[in-house]
Design a protein that fits this description.
Distance between the termini: 55 Å
Helix content: 40-55%
Radius of gyration: 28 Å
Structural class: alpha+beta
Number of strands: 16
Largest sheet: 8 strands, mixed
């Protein structure tokens, strides 16, 4: 093969590839998230990576998501047969861009096999054909929970979401964070009260949702393009900038609900928000972990009520690290039935890369092994294998070195992989049923009776 004909084996742009320590960090976070999800009774499901395109586009191409379509690539002889037969291909299929739309189809497919309210979690890979850049991927893992009911869904499920978010991020110890809560009925009702046509409300909500990213000037320009007068735009900006403590904001909203004409939807949103906030407090979420932020709207049009975004204090430039909200019509669109739901999503792949780059999280050691049993001489391999198995049965992760090399080289190998301890057994130690035990972190080396080796390692690990 000529040099110019070499295959380009570099990673495709936008598709992440983890080193062992990074993958171990991801698995730790997945285990932590799963434990919290299951503590609230959420059950796991899995949906196909591929869905019918009409399913994924049932509510329009949500937000700015670019969907990856699938076209089979056939061998030349098969393609010729297909063209000769006049086949035009099977139904259009595409890779899922989120977990929520496939969940709606899943519930429709299994309606009579599920118990409602149905609370599920899913931690699968999704695909979006967006421009690849730092911290943004075309393939990434999302960790989602949703609760879906038939006809009615208690707002206390909405209140559970901030409690779950708090437990997860407290457990992984990433620092101070703030869960910003709003209700889209409040925004919709307010827009109606200032005279914005109903056909323009969704687009205006989408514009307001970009306020933090693009700034007030750009938002006003975009609202002007929608035909919104400058005076009305300023009223909207002033409204979403209402701030204060949770109770102060609620009081201001309740006053507006009483004094604003034709504010039925606005009032309903305020009442729902007050109910959710009460539930959040009753679930023990600390006051410094949540606030009301009227600029939070979420870009996806299927959200209809409570919405959430979570930001890391001091690292707001990272954007939302967990978001979601309530929807009323997404699932029911496949069944012609009212099926309200509420959920949140953590874009884990994106989050990991941003937190590592910001120095908030670090990759794990390359291996889960806690001990290396070094190879002093090949004829003692039966001893090394026996000792290794006894340590594993005691719950200790062990690498047995099968290759005899200089001791210093074996220590270097252990250090490079992040293995803290080495067990050294030569012919004298084997005869005396002892081992030398070296702590690579402190350089301390002690002699231990083989019978006590596992307990000594556990003591030092603790």
């Amino acid at each position: 093969m000529a040099k110019s004909d070499k295959i380009n084996f570099s990673t495709p742009s936008g598709f992440p590839e983890f080193l062992p320590g990074e993958k171990r960090l991801e698995l730790y976070l997945l285990d932590t998230i799963r434990r919290v999800f299951e503590s609230y009774g959420f059950t796991p499901i899995e949906t196909p990576a591929v869905e019918r395109l009409e399913v994924l586009q049932a509510k329009g191409n949500q937000g700015d998501n670019i969907i990856y379509g699938l076209n089979p690539i056939l061998p030349p002889n098969r393609q010729a047969e297909k063209d000769k037969a006049g086949e035009t291909g099977a139904e259009a299929r595409a890779l899922k861009f989120d977990q929520t739309v496939p969940l709606a189809a899943y519930i429709a497919r299994h309606l009579n096999e599920l118990t409602f309210p149905f609370a599920r979690y899913q931690m699968d890979v999704v695909f979006r054909g967006e421009r690849a850049k730092d911290g943004r991927y075309r393939q990434f893992r999302q960790c989602d929970i949703d609760v879906v009911a038939r006809r009615e869904l208690s707002l206390l499920y909405d209140a559970q979401m901030p409690a779950i978010i708090t437990e997860i991020f407290d457990a992984v110890n990433i620092g101070d964070f703030l869960i910003r809560i709003n209700n889209r009925k409040i925004l919709t009702g307010f827009f109606k009260s200032v005279g914005i046509e109903e056909t323009k409300i969704k687009s205006c909500i989408g514009i307001i949702d970009t306020l933090e990213k693009v700034g007030e000037k750009k938002v006003k320009q975009e609202l002007e393009k929608e035909g919104i007068l400058a005076e009305t735009s300023q009223k909207i900006i002033d409204f979403v900038h209402i701030n204060g403590t949770v109770d102060e904001v609620l009081d201001k909203l309740k006053y507006l609900a009483q004094t604003t004409p034709e504010a039925e939807e606005f009032s309903l949103g305020v009442t729902e928000l007050e109910t959710v906030i009460s539930g959040v407090r009753n679930l023990g979420v600390p006051e410094n972990r949540f606030c009301i932020d009227l600029s939070i709207a979420r870009g996806l049009n299927y959200y209809t009520g409570t919405v959430y975004e979570t930001t890391l204090i001091g690292h707001e430039a990272l954007g939302s690290i967990c978001s979601g909200g309530r929807y009323e019509e997404l699932v029911g669109m496949f069944l012609d039935e009212k099926m309200p739901g509420v959920g949140i999503s953590i874009g884990l792949t994106r989050l990991i890369s941003r937190l590592i780059k910001a120095g908030i999280l670090s990759s794990f050691a390359a291996t889960p092994a806690q001990v290396m049993v070094v190879n002093m001489q090949d004829d003692l391999m039966p001893v090394y294998l026996n000792v290794s198995q006894k340590l594993r049965k005691a719950g200790i992760n062990v690498i047995t070195n099968f290759e005899q090399r200089p001791l210093g080289k074996q220590f270097q190998q252990a250090e490079k992989q992040g293995i803290p301890f080495c067990v050294i057994i030569g012919s004298e130690e084997a005869a005396a049923q002892k081992a030398s035990f070296k702590d690579l972190r402190t350089r301390e080396q002690v002699e231990v009776v083989l019978e006590d080796l596992a307990e000594e390692i556990k003591r030092r690990l603790a």
